[in-house]
């Protein structure tokens, strides 16, 4: 099982592949994101907000802080672990998500003599590990750098401090060795602005496209519609097929 990081790892000069988890390692068609929005909205309603106020605050906090939970903690002093239990923890992941052999093979084919593979998520450790387990990817992810909801002032993507803490914890001394993929544009741009080497926006598409067909997006190195395109973008860390 992938391990949430609890202490700093010794410096390592290999590349490090940072994989976002939600809506990156599984498809948006699973509707996990929509189910999460419904649960967060219900949480706002349980606090006594009207339907309109709940929608407004949810959008405001997500936009301002990267997570609605951050706004709730800053302005309403809620219990983050209770929020996590009622929102992430109540998702029927086992009934919805299925392992994708192609994604597993993609991660398997990363040459571990050249690169480490870590997860970088705004979720808490319990949700991150649960998703990886359901997707049958736990054994391929070395460590998880996650949002520590148990801390009253945790950081998250896209805050620069989150990326700095991730580098420090992973023992990364050269951020140009970081290869990062995420489905959120702000998160990818933030990593790039922190000096990370190659930052990719994953914008899922049902049909196959070549990378040349993807639009250019300011502040990111590449846009992909299929995770398999990482084989070409990051060929320096993939095993050479005879």
From TrEMBL:
Single GO MF annotation: nucleotidase activity
Pfam family, any one: Hydrolase
Swiss-Prot/TrEMBL GO biological process terms: nucleotide catabolic process; pyrimidine nucleobase metabolic process
Recorded superkingdom: Eukaryota
SUPFAM superfamilies for the chain: HAD-like
InterPro entries linked: HAD-like_sf (IPR036412), HAD-SF_hydro_IA (IPR006439), HAD_sf (IPR023214), Pyr-5-nucltdase (IPR010237), SSM1_domain (IPR052791)
Family annotation (NCBIfam families): HAD-SF-IA-v3, Pyr-5-nucltdase
Protein name: Pyrimidine 5-nucleotidase
Source species taxonomy: Eukaryota, Fungi, Dikarya, Basidiomycota, Agaricomycotina
